[in-house]
């Protein structure tokens, strides 16, 4: 009986999440009209929205705003909106100039990360994950970066920027032989807050290295090993300090 109840709860949460997603998408034309009027064309299909689970009265919206689009590169800003879930009215917004610029490495996805990032007793952060991919088949590349934001009065304030959470890099002959590097990171909050009232961020990293070769009629991994690393990121009064090697290259 307990098992049935548990699965019923999971199903209810999933259905509720799907309903919120549909409602969010249905509100987008109204939200965008409120934010931009008719002055700026916004591609509705590229806009991302999500009801904030911990604060269901608020909906998070990410709006790509292209400025320059050429064959080999583009310049695109990203604007974050915090909207009343019931009213559809924009209450807070933040423009991030050049956040989605691209060239050989292009933006392949944007998603809100609404894990319960209680960075301090009174500050709940939300995350924005941006995925990027390279256009070379012989030298494949992909990465995902995370930025965290808090609501601070009538502003959206960044507290963590451009932390790379996943990366995949390869160099191969497009058939078999080559080398591959994979990296993934997970983020957790330290149990106790630091001196400034903000919890440290505990970052765990795993890296995998592989080398493939042709052996007879097969493509085999002939060398491979893993590495693990742990980092602790502290808040300096304005934002979390991130070592340069952990950041996305701009």
Unreliable runs = 6-18
Helix content: 10-25%
Cα-based radius of gyration, to the nearest Å: 21 Å
Mean pLDDT: 90
User: What's the β-strand tally?
Assistant: 11
Tell me the fraction of residues in β-strands, as a range: over 45%
Order of helices and strands: HEEEEEEEEEEE
Cα shape? globular
Explain how this protein is built.
- The chain is mostly beta strands and 250 residues long.
- Helix content is 14%, strand content 55%.
- The chain is built from one helix and eleven strands.
- The strands form two sheets. A seven-stranded antiparallel sheet has the order 5-6-7-8-9-10-11, with no helix packed on it.
- The termini are far apart.
- 17% of the residues are buried.
Provide a short characterization of the protein structure:
By secondary structure, the chain is mainly beta. The protein is built from one helix and eleven strands, in the order H-E-E-E-E-E-E-E-E-E-E-E.
Strand and helix layout:
Blueprint: H1 2-36, E1 48-51, E2 58-69, E3 74-84, E4 90-96, E5 105-118, E6 124-134, E7 141-152, E8 155-172, E9 178-193, E10 199-215, E11 218-233
Antiparallel strand pairs: 1-2, 2-3, 3-4, 5-6, 6-7, 7-8, 8-9, 9-10, 10-11
Task: For the structure shown, list the relevant keywords.
250 residues; mainly beta; four-stranded antiparallel β-sheet; 1 helix
